[in-house]
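Q: What structure does this chain adopt?
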Amino acid sequence: MLKLTDRAVTDSPIPLITRTEARMLGTALHPRTHIRLRRGIYVLREDYLRATPWEQYATRVHAFVRSHPDAVLCLESAGVIYGLPLFGHPRDIHVFDASLRTSQRYGDVCVHTSVDGREVVSEAGVLVTSLLDTVVDLARALSPGLALAVVDSAISPAQGGTVQLADAYELIVRQHNPRARSQARWVCSSADERAESPAESISRAVIEWSGFEQPELQHEFRYDGHHDRVDFLFPRSGTIGEADGWGKYQLDDPSAAAALLTEEKRREDRLRRHGHPFARWELNDAWRVKPLVEALRAAGLRQRHPSQPAMLASLRRRTRDRHA
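A:
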């Protein structure tokens, strides 16, 4: 499974080239071949357009750091450096400046300030707000499902998290924004250090907001001499849920992937033989809600509470995204 350190983007995923370097190398910078990310900083157009939205954002962040090495990154921009599980292509570069009286915007750069202050640290040579401050800021700013994925990853030992949930909650209570505190309190009350992937976190939010019973995470079974651990167990019915991420099957190594898929099939058959209905889904199914709900219903689960349409709709409202 991926950990924060695995996801951390401490260097630009797409090589940056400055105007000075281009002159030295005899490289012609032309709009047909290069994209200007910041003044005097470019990337190959082909490389940038081929990258994922998240890689494009990480590249923009590093281009900004290249031109403003003394700036303190915060929110999603600091999340890039820490490897927090953010999604899509955030619209803005986020910077913290305690000396300002009010927050300001310059093009695609948001400069934030706060009466609460922030701890500033250096990660891989980049100035950022501390991991605790960054996680709490994102818990307040992101939509609830995304915020849950961030907090889960930060407190989960399996994901390499080192934040203590009690510290996050204490910091939230001390801050001055009542509306943001309300959301952050829900996120912290729902966070679970046993979550092993962002897919599990998003799925858990969808399960709750769709009215199903809350599952137990990482439940362990011992059948036929085997020790099996599952993502979700719904205790009333004994139904098992698995939020699949193809990364765990090592698909870049065909022989390893084949062995893992075979073992996974045997594991599922073993659990089914012992009376456990099975539901499987992927992260994209959780984003779309209906496929996850249908997978749970097909496994015999029924909603026990009314669904929360407004909360489910929040998964689709990506107001901080570049293309929202």
